[in-house]
Amino acid sequence: QVQLVESGGGLVQAGGSLRLSCAASGSISSISTMGWYRQAPGKQRELVAAITSGGSTDYLYSVKDRFTISISRTNAKSTVYLQMNSLNSEDTAVYYCNARVNGMNAWGKGTLVTVSS
Question: For residues 22 and 6, is the Cβ–Cβ distance under 8 A?
Answer without folding.
Answer: yes
